[in-house]
C-alpha cells in the first residue's frame, strides 16, 4: 500500500498549523552572512533579516543534502513509500533541480520532484491543495498529474516596496525595467508560466491602489474560468494590518472560494522582498 509524503521548502511560507494539519514536510532554505549559515524558520526569522538587510551582504542557498537525506530516512522509518517534492520556482532558484539530483541517489523511496513556478503562499497553496487530494485517497501517479495541474493553474501576485533587494540578490528578472522608477509607482510581481521567472504584469500609482489591483488580477482569472473551483492564498511581510484588510476584501469579492490559506513571508524570501509585501494567489482545482 502506498504511503505518500509531500515535501516542500521554507519559501512556501506554510504556517505550522497547516504543516501539522496536512502532514507537509518543510526543508529550510540556507541563509548566509558574516561567514555563518542559518536555517530559514529554524534559527533565523524574517524580522532578523529586516534588521540587517540594509547593512549586510546576505545570500541564500538550497537546503543542504544532509537535511534532505535525514528527512527521507525519517519518512522511510515511518512507513512512507513515495515522496512528491514541490519546490520554489526554477526561474529564481536551483532548489528543485538540486533536490531532484539528491533524490535520484536515494533508492529507499520512490520520489518525484515538481517545479512549482511559484513562491510564498503561491507555492504553499499548491502543497496544501495536493495534500487535500492525497487525503481523498489519490494514488501516487494520480497525485503527480494533479500536482502538474496545480502548478500550471496557480497564479500568484505580490506588491513590494523596494526592488533593490531583488536586484542585489540577482533574482529580479524582467522586473529590472522598474528599477529607479519613482516611488509613487508600485509594480506588481508574478511568475511567468514559460520559465518561472519574475515579471511585472501590472503597476499602480500609490500604495492605496495595491489591494484593489491585486483583487482585479484575481478576478481576471475567474472571468476566464467562471465555473472552475478555486482556493485562495494571502501573504504579507510585516504588513499584517493591510493583509487583514485585503483578506476581508477577498472574501467579500469571491465568497465562492473553496478554502483560503494565509502566511507570512519567511526569512529566505525576505532577503529579496524586504518588508511591506502584500501577496495573493488563486489556485484552480481539478474536478
TrEMBL record:
Amino-acid biosynthesis among keywords: no
Which SUPFAM superfamilies does UniProt cross-reference here?
DAK1/DegV-like (SSF82549)
Going by the UniProt record, its keywords in alphabetical order are: Lipid-binding
Name the Gene3D superfamilies for this protein. Answer: 3.30.1180.10, 3.40.50.10170
Q: Which domain of life is it from?
A: Bacteria
The record, for InterPro entries, names: DegV, DegV_C, DegV_domain_contain
Entry-linked Pfam families: DegV
Q: What is this protein called?
A: DegV family protein
> What taxonomic lineage is listed for the species of origin?
Bacteria, Bacillati, Bacillota, Erysipelotrichia, Erysipelotrichales
